[in-house]
Amino acid sequence: MQNGDQEAVVIPGPPATHEDITEELIHVSRQTGSRMKKAIILSGILSLFGFIGIAMQMANGIDDHTKWNFYAVIYFYIFSVTMGIPMAGIGLRFARAQWRRPTSRSAELFAIAGPVNLIFFIPILMVAPPIEGRNSLWMDWALAPWFPDIIMMLLLVLTGLAFLYVSLLPDFAAVRDHGSGFTQRLASRLSRGWSGSPKEWSLHKSALGILGAFYITAYAMTHLVLSSDFAMTLVPGWKDPIFPAFHAITGLQMGAALLIVTMYLLRRLGGLGRYFELEQFWGYSRLLLALSLFWFYFWWCAFILFWYARLPHEQGVIALFVSGDFAVENILARPQFLMFAGAISFSFILPFLILMWNILRRSIVWPTVVGLIVLIGGFFDRMRLYANSWSIDQVGGHGLDHLPTVNAPGLPDLLVFIGMVSSVLFLYLLISRLVGFVSVWETREALLLRFIKPWGVGYAHVVVKPE
Amino acid sequence: MQDRPRLTQTQVNEELLWPVFSFKRRHALAFIPPLILLMGGVIAVTILIYQGLWVTGLQRPAFWGFFIVNFVFWIGVSHAGTMISSILRLTQAEWKRPITRAAEVMTVFALITSLLHPVIHAGRPWRIIYWLLPYDFARGVWPDVRSPLVWDPIAITTYLTGSILFVFTALIPDFALIRDQSTGMRKKIYSSLALGWRGTPRQWKLQGIFGILMSALILPVFVSVHSIVSWDFAVSVVPAWHVTVYAPYFVIGAVHSGVSMVLTLMALMRWIFKLENYIWEDHFDAVGRLLIFIATLWLFFFFLDFAFSFYTREEQELAVMQRRLFEWPFNAITVIMIMTSYVIPIPLWLSKRVRRNIPLMFWTSILVNIGMWLERYFLIIPAIERKNELTFLWSNYVPSLIESLVVLASFGMVALLLLLFAKVVPLVPAWEAKEGIVFREDVQIGEVIVPGIIKETEEDKAW
Questions:
Q1: The pTM is what?
Q2: Do B455 and A461 touch (CB under 8 A)?
Q3: Do residue A458 and residue B242 have CB atoms under 8 angstroms apart?
C-alpha cells in the first residue's frame, strides 16, 4: 500500500509475513550504525550539561525562587511532554484503535524519561517556597507539599516504567530467540522465561490494562498536585480548579505532537517508513486537532469566569497570565501578553487553522509541521505559567498587589534545557538498541487482525474484533 | 458477536416496522405510566399558573429550585444523542448502529422538555417573550446579551435545530422504506417525508457525507450548550458556584447521565419492541465500557470541584460545603449521589459478566440517573441557600408537591414522546441494521471464528 507522500525514496509496503517482521524489527532496525552511535554518544555527553547548569544555578543561591523561574519553565515543559507521550499510546490502546499499533512502542519508550524527571525534580523541591501563608490543597499539613508531590511523582514514574516493562516482555523474548550477542543475553534475562503460552498472553493483557489505568490516574493526579503546588499556590488570589485539567491536557497535546515528530524522524532517518504510514499520521493529526481544541476550551472556561465576574483578585490573574499590565499602553511591550500570544497562537490558532482541513490532516508533512508548532506553543505556555508565577515574591494576600518583573533566562537555564533534553534522548536511543522502535508482538497481532480482501468491484479493509 | 443469525432484508423489515403498522398489547400498555405522570404534571402546572409561584418552595434567596435542577438534568440527558451518534460515528464504532436513532430522538425530546422548565419557572410564562426576543418591549429595556441567561436559549435552540436536522436526515431512508410498504394516506404522508428518496448511490453518498459533516459541526454545539448552562451559575459570584471547572464538569456529567439514560432506553426498547436480534449483549457491554471511562472522568472533575472548595478556606464557601456534607438532607443526598453515580455501578461494570447482563445494566443505569439528578441538586441548591454573607438571609429550600409533580411529569413526557415516535418510525434504523449485516465479516483465525468489520479504504473516502 503506497502512501501519498512525494518523496525521492520509495517506501515499500508493510511486511506481509511474521518472518518479514522478525527480520526487519529484530535484525535490521536494531543495527547500530555510525549515525546512531554518534547520536547516543553526543546525547550522553550533553546530558551532563544539565547537572552543570543545576550546579551553576545553585551557586546563585536557593533561597530566592524568583531566580529559578526559568528552571521551573524548562522542568515542567519537559515533564509535561515526556510524561504525556505514553498517555497517548495508552489511551489509544484502551480505545482499541488498531492503527496505533506500529506507534505504541515509540510512545511507551518515553516512559524511560521518568527517572530524568525525578532527578531534575529535586531542585524544584528544594527551591520552591513553603506553602505557609498561601492557599493550598494541603491545609497547612507539615509534610506538604514535598511528601505528597514526591509520592505522586514516584507513582507516575514507576507505573510508567512498569507498563513499559510489561509491554516489552514478549519482545524481549523475541530478541532472546532471534538476536545475538550482548543484547540477546540481556534480553534473555529480562524476558523472565516468557514462552508465549495462552495464559501468559491473557495475564499480559490484563496487566497492561491495569497498569494503563493506573498510569492514567497517576498522570491526572500528578498534574493536579504539581500544578497547584508549584504554580497556583504562588499567585495570591488564583483559585482555578480547571487549571490541573488544563495542565494535564496540554501535556497530552504536547506529547502527541512530539510523537508525530518522532514518527517522522523514524520514518526518514530510521528506515521505518512501512510502519509509520499515512494512516498513523492521519490518526494522530485528528487527535492533535481535538487536543488543540481542548486547549482553547479549558483556557476559555477559566478566562470567561475571571473576565465576567470582574473580581479584583481575578483581574490580577488575567493581567498576570493574559493581558499584562494595562498601565503599559503598548500591548507589545507587555511580556505577559507576548507569552500568552505565543501560547495561544502556537497551541491553538495555528494548529486549528491547519488541521481543520482534511487534505492537510491526511498527509505526513503537515501533521509533523503542526507537531513542531505545538511544541513551540507548549513552551510559550509553560513560560507564561511558570515564569510569571515563580517571579512573584509576595506571600499570601487576597490578590496580586503588582505584576512581577520576570527574570530573563540565563546560561544555567540553557544548560539545564540541553541537559534534560539530551538525557531523555540518550535513554530513549539506548533502550531502542535493545528492543527497537516498533513492537514486534503488536505488529504480528496486527497481521492477524487486519487484512485487505476483494469486495464487490474493489477492495475493503477487514478489521477483526475478537473482543 | 459470534453466532448471530444472518437476517434477511425481509426479516429486518418485518421485525423493525411492526410498531409502525400495528399496535401490540405491550406497546399499548407502555403508554399508561407516562400518561399518568404527564397528567399529574399538567394539573400541577395549571395550579401553579392560576395560583402563582407561592405554591412552590421558592423563597429568598433560593429562587432557583426543582425546575432549574430539572432543566439542567434534561439538558444533560440530551447530550447522549450527540455522544452516541456523532462521536461514535466519527470514530467509526460499529456497535452504535441500533441505538443511534433512539439516542438522537431522545436528545430532541429531552431538549424540548428542558426548554419548558424555564417557561414554567417564570410563573407567568407569557412574559418570557419580553425577554427572549431582541426588542425593547417596555421602557427601552433590551434583553441583556451579556447574560448567560440569553446565551442559553441561543445555544439550546441551535442544538435543537441541529439535532432535528440530524435525526430527520437519518430518517429519510426509513421513511422511504415505510412509503414503499404503505398504501393510501399513510403512503402519501411518508412520500412527502421521504423527499423522493430512491436509494441511488449518489443519495447514499450524500447522506453519508451529511452525517459526517453534521457530526463534526454539532460537536462544538454539544460542548457549548452545557458549558453555557454551567455558566448560568459559574459566572456569577455566588460562592461554590463561581468555579472554573463547572463547564467541563457539567458536560461530562451530562454525557454520563445521557448515556446511562440510553442504556435504560436500550433495555426498554429490547423488551417492549422485541428487538433481541438487533440490541445484543455486546451493545450493553460496549456502552458499559464507555460509561466506565466517562464516569471516571466525571469523578475526576467532581474531585477537582470538591478539593478546591477548601483551597482558599473562604468562610462562605466553607459554609456551603458544611451544608452539603453535614446538614440534612444534603448529607444523605451527597452519600446517595456518590454511591449511585459511581461507587455502585462502576465496580459492577468492570465485570464483563455484569456488562452483558441486561437486567443488571438496566437497574444500574437507573441508579446512575438518580445519582446524576441528585448531583445537580447538590451543586445548585446549597450554594444559593447560602449565597448571602449575612446568615440571617440564609434559607432552607423545601420543594413542594407541585414541583415534584412537574419533575415526574418531565420523565413521563419524554417517555410518551418516545413511544409516540416509535409508532411513526422504527426506533432501530432499518437501513443501519441492513448496512451492519452487509459490513459484517466472520473471519477464521486458527480454529476460532471471530467477527470482523469491513471498513472503507482511504481511497474510497472522497472527503
A1: 0.92
A2: yes
A3: no
